Amino acid sequence: MPTLNSAHLHTETKVYSLSQVARSIRKVLERATASKSWLVKAEILSISEGIGKKTVYLDLVEEAEGRQNAKMRGIIWAGAGQNILAELGDEAAQILKPGSEVVFSARIQFHERYGLALHIDRIDLRFMLGELERRKQITTARLKEMGAMEWNRKMAVPTLPQRIALVGSAGTSGFRDFCTKVTEHPYRFRVRIEAHQSSVQGVSAAEELAAGIRQAEATQPDLIVLVRGGGGKLDLDAYNDFELCLAIARSSVPVWTGIGHESDLVVADLVAHTAWKTPTEVAVGVVQRFEDASLEVDGLHAQLEHLAQAWLLDRHREFEGHWERISSASRHALNRQRLELQNLSRLLQIQAPALVERHRHTLREMRSTVARAGAHSLENAAREIRHCQQRLRGASSRHLAEQKLALAHFKRTLDAIGPEKTLQRGFMMLERNDEVLSRVAGVKEGEQLRIRARDGELDVTVDGASSSPTSS
Predict the structure, then answer these.
(1) Domain-by-domain residue ranges, the chain?
(2) pLDDT band (50, 70, 90) for residue 162
(3) Please, which of 153, 282, 432, 462 could form a disulfide with 258 given CB 3.0 to 4.6 Å?
(4) Measured between alpha carbons, how far is 23 from 3 in angstroms, rounded to an integer?
(5) What's the alpha-carbon Rg for the chain, to the nearest Å?
(6) pTM assigned to the model
(7) Alpha helices (H) in 13-164, listed in sequence order
């Protein structure tokens, strides 16, 4: 049987250098991809600055349920970056940022030193917009099937919404524009704004906005306002999220939106109570309600003032009419009284002497009658007083004698039944502390009592006591 030595093993085992392995991988990948470009969808985790001016490096990920399913490096050369900027225009900064999900054209390349990377040469905006529109239509269809499109519109907005819950990012221009327009209005209406901070872009934006709506609803304000300071179509995709739109539709408080776009509506606009184009327009809508109410109050004030003046004028005219009638009636009454007084004066001048003489005769007769009656009455009264005095003296004497007899009889009775007489007749008396006892009730066993007799006293101790059956 042959044996193997170490030299033989060394010649049979092939060892490859790292560069050989890397070159082999690169060649295999080049043959497999044929340097073709592929459409790839991924989320930008990070991106360096200077696109269009220098090479830009990206970290690209794919996440599901909070876990990274894949992660690769992306590269945009300066020339490709210029083409991308030209194609995206003003939306470039909104699309190429951390948190954005993008679809791009890229070549898959492997470098011996830098490893695997996606060389991005174009951002496929049309594909991304198509996906956005598809998700928007799906969300709209689900909400329509539930009948949720009209739910929030049925909520009544108070005439003057003084407590407003503002949902959005406090650092955005739209947030500031709304607050400035409402709080710095010349009329200085009493409006309290309660801010509910939420992200308006990125992967978590829709979830945070939905939570913000629910938190705002829990405080039961007069109105919920959802604002965002503009942005491209792709940035507005969060406002097509089903859960966010359902939270708006189910809110028991009316929701106004001002998401900052000029043309297409997002689904959040479709389910909200009222959709405005910009945060400033929402603020104008709020302020306008106060201005309309102020104008209405001013109109009512002017109308009330006019009615009051008309009423006062009517009362003044009515008063003048009454015054004229009263003055005329007073003059007629005074004239009648004057004529009556004149007639009475003439009548008195004619009848006064006879009337005075008649009264004088009557007074003389009354004086004579009173004089006669007075003397007779005084005599009768004196006689009656004397008679009463005599009767009073007789009655007093009789009453005094009767009382003396009764007193003597009472004294004899007391002497006959008094304690000393009772002892003289052979009876004894039972005493307790100089108090004569007449009943057994209340006497206790062992109590010290005294018995008085005609010829002395006895001190006794109670051994027992019993009551008579007939006693009460």
Answers:
(1) 7-123, 132-285, 421-461
(2) confident
(3) 282
(4) 37
(5) 62
(6) 0.52
(7) 18-33, 78-88, 92-95, 125-146
Residues in the chain: 472
* Structure confidence at residue 4 (pLDDT): 46
Q: Tell me the Ramachandran region of residue 434: left when phi exceeds 0, alpha when psi lies from -120 to 50, beta otherwise.
A: left
* Long-range contact pairs involving 269-278 (C-beta distance under 8 Å, separation at least 24): 269/239, 270/140, 270/143, 270/149, 270/245, 271/143, 271/148, 271/149, 271/151, 271/152, 271/245, 271/246, 272/152, 272/226, 272/248, 273/152, 273/153, 273/155, 273/157, 274/157, 278/174, 278/177, 278/230
User: Of 271, 324, 259, 12, nearest to 155 (Cα)?
Assistant: 271
For residue 233, the tally of other CB atoms under 10 A from its CB is 19
Task: Dump pLDDT digits (tens) for 18-63.
Answer: 999 989 998 888 888 877 888 999 999 999 999 999 999 999 999 8
Question: Which of these CATH numbers, 3.30.360.10, 2.40.50.140, 3.40.640.10, 3.60.150.10, describes 7-123?
Answer: 2.40.50.140
CB of 136 within 8 A of CB of 112? no
Q: Report the DSSP beta bridge partners of residue 123.
A: 104
Separation of alpha carbons 265 and 251, rounded Å: 20
Q: Which amino acid is at 146?
A: M
The answer to whether the CB of 454 falls within 8 A of the CB of 423 is: yes
Which position has the token pair 């004894």? 428
Can you read off the two tokens belonging to residue 189?
Answer: 């209406």
Do strands 115-123 and 67-76 pair parallel, antiparallel, or not at all (unpaired)?
parallel
Q: Which residue has 């039972």 as its token pair?
A: 430
Query: 290 in the Ramachandran plot: left (φ > 0), alpha (ψ -120 to 50) or beta?
Result: alpha
Q: How many CB atoms lie within 10 A of CB 224?
A: 30
Q: Which two tokens stand for residue 146?
A: 């539930």
Q: Where are the alpha helices (DSSP H) in 418-458?
A: 419-424
Q: What are the two backbone dihedrals, phi and then psi, of residue 16, each rounded to the nearest 5 degrees?
A: -105, 145
Buried b / exposed e across 322-360, counting CB within 10 Å, b at 16+? eeeeeeeeeeeeeeeeeeeeeeeeeeeeeeeeeeeeeee
Distance (Å) of CA 152 to CA 25, 222, 247, 252: 59, 13, 10, 7
Residue 123: its H or E element: strand 115-123
Q: How many CA atoms lie within 13 A of 379 on its CB side?
A: 5
- In 10 A of CB 237, how many CB atoms? 23
The verdict on domain 132-285 having CATH code 3.30.2380.10 is: no
Please spell the DSSP secondary structure of 145-165, one letter per residue.
HHTGGGTGGGSPPPSS--EEE
- CA separation for the pair 112, 106 (Å, rounded): 19
| pLDDT digits 0-9 by tens, 345-366 | 788 778 777 777 787 888 888 8
